[in-house]
Predict the structure.
Amino acid sequence: MTGTLKKTPLVVGKSKKPRCFKGVKNLPVNYANSYNAWMTSNIFKEFLLKWDKELKDEKIVILLDNSSAHPAEEELHLKNIKLMFLPPNTTSIIQPFDQGIIRSLKFHYRKTIVQQIIKDIDSHNS
């Protein structure tokens, strides 16, 4: 809530091994793939289980909509993460991501990537 805990974003793409990642040793994001680049239940479960282990003794709450990719909390046996679901048919009104967070995140992420590319090009031209 305070913004002090920042999780590395999870990006879902189509390719298992995208050509653009060739030779890249470290990505600034977590990457998963599905045939249509959508979040799946399995990808989300793996992401949550990994995050739950990373948290150790910290406790967090995650607000979710009723997407089919979001599993019931009982399926996961999470120790440090509590899942809370928003009421049906209200996500476009009250869901934080629909209030501009996704747009803002994408803008800042793309800006950072472009700045890094320009910096890399300039350092090779010097």
In short: Helices lie at 41-55, 73-76, 91-94, 101-125.
